[in-house]
Amino acid sequence: MKDLTLKYGCNPNQKPSCVYMEDGSDLPITVLNGRPGYINLLDALNGWQLVRELKAATGMPSATSFKHVSPAGAAIGLPLTETEARIYWVDDMGPLTPIASAYARARGADRMSSFGDFISLSDICDACTARLVAREVSDGIIAPGYTEEALEILKKKKKGNYCVLQMDTSYVPAPVEKKQVYGVTFEQGRNELVIDDALFANIVTKNKELPKAARDDMAIALITLKYTQSNSVCYVKGGQAIGIGAGQQSRIHCTRLAGSKADNWYLRQSPQVLGLPFREGIRRADRDNAIDLYIGEDYMDVLADGKWEAIFTEKPPVFTAEEKRAWLDGNTDVTLGSDAFFPFGDNIERAFRSGVKYVAQPGGSVRDDNVIEAADSHGMVMCFTGIRLFHH
Known about the structure:
The chain has helices spanning about 40-60, 80-85, 100-110, 110-115, 125-135, 150-155, 210-225, 250-265, 270-275, 285-295, 300-305, 320-330, 345-350, 370-375; strands at about 5, 15-20, 30-35, 60-65, 70-75, 115-120, 140-145, 165, 175-180, 185-190, 230-235, 240-245, 335-340, 355-360, 380-385. The protein is an alpha/beta fold.
């Protein structure tokens, strides 16, 4: 397939729309089912690069959940704990394969943002993963291949219209990339930076103890940021992104946004949330919405008289700010990556409140001394990579 006509571009009024290879060669994707849209393909191709690099960096099957050309989640295929399986709504599925575990983590960390996602997998999609995908709201998937059973499961989704793409793993893109904005052509060399342990050698804090698991989490954070709309910050723990702050104009707003998502991920594991008495038949998406409100500042939207009765069998107690803070203090050993330097120590102070112990950032601010001092005050380990990872 040398070109693919699309229904429309970013919006229905943007016609005509298509994708093709300028050199006349075949597209590196094959449409196995459905009809991809313009944004679907942007998500698919960015997501494929991300999981390909995660697999290369960690040696583990990898997955990402993309929305609007930024990842909502990214993860490697480590086994889920019992609590993780519960908060990701997969505790009824039995043992998961590594690639299914990777997607459950990527989809589950920020379920609000992942609603209606486009999925990218580093490995062949098996039936276990397909069954997980089949019951979630999703626009499509890209993978290097599919088992026969997995493909049959996916073809039944969305009344037979679910978008299933297969990636040509031998494809090598041109070293120079181009795009047009307002009729002006932009050209630049592709960002071929390899993210590995060598990037984390320059530890600038007093604490220099950086275990292997933290280095892997740093790699996950930076590879995720490499394909996240800038400015961006990523919190990672245990092989998965738990909070991504994308596309913010201010660095501190990135840190706050990603930190609030990381906090929500951890709050969902609290006894108060795990014990919520949901009524029978409440859908997973409605549970996600209710939990998001319950742990946030707008909790009365689900706890007010006349509201809670439609969701719960009995009225849950308010999850107080003091109780939430006490629970969040148990979240430790979190890794933080930033796509550009931190200009002020306030970012470190905010990160510390979300359990951050390890930090990877480019360095190079005129206030690096202030940022290092803030990290030292909390016993953090901070690396200066010297590499910026803007993506637009």
